[in-house]
Specification:
Oligomer: single chain
Shape: globular
Strand content: under 5%
Radius of gyration: 20 Å
Mean pLDDT: 87
Distance between the termini: 6 Å
Length: 402
């Protein structure tokens, strides 16, 4: 890994980013604001009479689809262009979200969630590759932090809105998600550049596979990211069940918050902390060895989430989420920037897709494992989360060049 670079002034860096970057920033915010369905899918399905095991299959269907989408999304981004891939993925995902709402049987719901995963997995690596195309290496940590700010701010506001919609109107929960996803596609179609494309002619599939297979630094980052992602996906699956199971409530100014509202509040805190602190934190993290920064972040994610074992109150839930979010803020932008640096230009989309594959694997395995551990005993889930954070940190630190 390269030595840490001396950080430039934050505002100066942000002002120098190209116009197309800010368009991408806005599109990602819109898309993530409309992520109403995913955080509340388990609650929605169990209210429709499906068992917890059936709901976990539907959630895992999304992860399976996202895995396929990530594999082909990187190739599409390199071959047809980042813009075209984003447009295809967003419109496809919007249609598939409404298909979940229309589906009646469990198999139909699983198929629909799988298609949402396929199309979502397609456009995410394209967006990351486009960002790497637009921004020079020295500014990528901050630019990835900025788009995470857009994503998390949108997600936090969207989750809070979804917490209202899930108790008010299931139709608008799904329609709002579909409309905002399609709007991201319109923004991409009208205003985003194509970015690099036609790269598959310079690096065909067999060359790409050989390059990725021989990149040990990328392998280590991939394994560490997988361990971290297995913890992160619990916030969209078992965390809501934990809060409902413990029956945490609170009252503010005469307004009583039920467990569903508490879950939305916790996810909103995650987004608020990222909006307020992630960009300034990049000025601090750039001063240190990126390996140590990522290792500390992964460790805080695992140990922070494990504190759910003590979270019998809203205060402890907020402490847990604060530690978890700090780990997320310092690890994710550094890891994304590292992948952009490791990837040959002709393979940038496929490297981003390969990294996304770790999240897709976690999207399949995480809910299934998490639900099983939670059903066995909640403490088993908290211990597993801590161990995953430790393993992720160890993977990053075990090699001098990671």
């Amino acid at each position: 890994m390269n030595a840490p670079i001396r950080p430039a002034a934050l505002l100066s860096d942000l002002r120098s980013l190209p116009r197309a970057f800010w368009i991408l920033f806005g599109g990602i915010f819109i898309n993530r604001f409309g992520t109403f369905v995913w955080p509340f899918l388990t609650i929605y399905l169990t209210r429709r009479g499906h068992s917890l095991a059936e709901a976990s299959l539907a959630v895992a269907g999304f992860g399976a689809g996202a895995m396929l989408g990530g594999i082909f999304g990187g190739w599409l981004a390199d071959h047809f262009g980042r813009k075209n891939t984003i447009v295809l993925g967003t419109f496809g995902a919007a249609i598939s979200v409404m298909a979940i709402y229309s589906a009646v049987s469990l198999p139909a719901i699983i198929v629909a969630t799988a298609f949402v995963g396929i199309f979502s997995g397609t456009y995410h690596p394209a967006a990351s590759a486009l960002l790497a195309d637009l921004v020079p290496d020295g500014q990528r940590v901050r630019s990835f932090a900025a788009v995470r700010l857009a994503a998390k701010a949108g997600y936090a506001l969207g989750t809070a809105t979804g917490g209202v919609l899930v108790n008010y109107s299931a139709f608008w929960l799904f329609a709002g998600d579909a409309l905002t996803t399609a709007l991201y596609g319109v923004v991409a179609l009208l205003w985003l550049p194509h970015g690099l494309r036609g790269q598959t002619t310079h690096a065909p599939l067999i060359t790409a596979l050989r390059t990725v297979a021989g990149d040990r630094a990328f392998h280590i980052l991939w394994i560490a990211t997988l361990c971290s992602a297995l913890v992160v996906v619990q916030t969209a699956s078992t965390l809501s069940l934990h809060i409902i199971h413990t029956g945490v409530t609170a009252s503010f100014f005469g307004l009583r918050l039920v467990p569903e509202n508490i879950y939305g509040l916790c996810m909103g805190l995650n987004g608020l902390l990222i909006v307020l602190f992630e960009l300034p934190l990049t000025s601090w993290t750039l001063r240190f060895d990126p390996r140590r920064v990522m290792a500390l972040g992964f460790l805080c994610q695992g140990l922070g989430f494990a504190l759910n074992g003590l979270s019998g109150s809203l205060t402890m839930l907020c402490v847990m989420m604060t530690i978890f979010t700090f780990g997320e803020m310092i690890s994710a932008p550094t890891a994304n920037a590292l992948v952009a640096r490791l990837a040959p230009e002709a393979l940038r989309g496929r490297y981003m897709g390969a990294l996304g594959l770790s999240w897709n694997v976690a999207g399949i395995a995480g809910p299934l494992i998490g639900f099983q551990l939670f059903a066995l005993h909640p403490a088993a889930l908290w211990v597993a989360s801590a161990l995953l954070g430790i393993v992720a940190a160890w993977c990053i630190l075990r090699r001098r060049q990671a």
